[in-house]
Write a structure and sequence with these properties.
2 domains; Quinone Oxidoreductase, Chain A, domain 1; 278 residues; 8 helices; five-stranded antiparallel beta sheet; Rossmann fold; alpha/beta
């Protein structure tokens, strides 16, 4: 039996439950590819799964290999695979219900894999899938953001927020970003038109009539965001579902985004990266 090294959890808990150990090397089945991992990334969903916060939503069988962002090279293809061959450089945000990417190899469904951007290395490519898909699904699909609209992005300097700023600007929107002051130059470089230091100024005191709010913070920030939306606007959250009753009371819409693997969106993101837009 061939083996590989991986980081797994055998029980839920803090960082101390992460175990670096040898495990059987997986083999690709029908419509799957075996990817040699060149780089992976760490996201908030990792620690939420590790600590058991998502066990009802994501009923895993333990032990479990952690990590769900990857860039690597196709090592082997299973029966039925048509888009990829051994040696192809790919990236993916695989299914959260399967073993992840803190490992030397990972088996992924062909439908969850896309060719990685040619213009960047594996380390940078591995930082794109989960955060990039989340930003795309939230702004491009859920909010339907279009040219000339105004969008308020909370937590704009974070992983998802940084992609959201760039995608909104690519769409031709006017981008308003909340972040601490030391991140304002960074956000301006990404394309933000206005920056608000949430530590010194309540955003609702200066912003009005935006078409969309993208909430990556939740809690009080989400609650105060209803005040800045125009009638018919939309509040999209990736933290907690915005209450439908609050949306109706303000004459607005709401959406909650929890992404699934999406190779088609990854392909579009790769094109934007290689085109210098992202």
């Amino acid at each position: 039996m061939q083996i590989m090294k991986a980081v797994r959890i055998h029980t839920y808990g803090g960082p101390e439950v992460l175990v670096h150990e040898e495990v059987p090397l997986p083999r690709p089945q029908n419509d799957e590819v075996l990817v040699r991992v060149r780089a992976t990334a760490v996201n908030p969903v990792d620690w939420k799964i590790r600590e058991g916060y998502l066990r009802e939503m994501l009923p895993h069988s333990l032990p479990l290999i952690m990590g769900w962002d990857v860039s690597g090279v196709v090592e082997e293809t299973g029966p039925g695979v048509t888009r990829f061959n051994a040696g192809d450089e790919v990236f993916s945000r695989p299914d959260l219900l399967r073993d992840g990417t803190y490992s030397e190899y990972v088996v992924i469904r062909e439908t969850e894999v896309a060719f990685k951007p040619e213009s960047i290395d594996h380390i940078h490519a591995a930082a794109i899938p989960l955060a990039g898909i989340t930003a795309w699904k939230s702004l491009i699909e859920a909010a339907g953001l279009s040219a000339g609209q105004r969008v308020l992005i909370h937590g704009a300097a974070g992983g998802v927020g940084s992609y959201a700023v760039q995608l909104a600007k690519w769409q031709g929107a006017h981008v308003i970003a909340t972040a601490s002051e030391h991140n304002h130059d960074y956000l301006h470089g990404l394309g933000a038109d206005e920056m608000i230091d949430y530590r010194s100024m309540p955003f609702e005191d200066t912003i009005r009539d935006v078409d969309a709010v993208f909430d990556t913070i939740g809690g009080d920030t989400q609650e105060r965001s209803w005040q800045v939306l125009k009638k018919g606007g939309i509040l999209v959250s990736i933290v907690a579902p915005p209450p439908e009753a609050m949306a109706a009371a303000h004459g607005c819409r709401q959406a909650f985004v929890f992404i699934q693997p999406d190779a088609a969106v990854l392909a579009k993101l790769a094109q934007l990266v290689d085109g210098g837009k992202l």
